[in-house]
Amino acid sequence: MSDFIIVSLIGVLILCLLLTLVGFVFYSGLLSEVVIRTGSPPVKKITIAYKFKKGSYKESGAAFTESCSIAPKLCSIGVYYDDPNQTQADCCRYAVGSILSEDEEKPDEELQRLYEKFGFSVISFPEVSFAVTSSFPNRCPLSPICGAYRVFPELNSYITERRLSAYPFLEICKGDLIQYMCPLENQERFFVPELLEKQTEGEQKPKESEEDEDDKGDEVTETGESCQMESSAVIQEAGVSGAESGEAVADLPVEQQSPEQDEGDGQSEEADQGAKSSSESVGSGSSFEELDMDMEEAEKERKDGEEDHMKDNDEKA
Question: pTM of this prediction?
Answer without folding.
Answer: 0.60
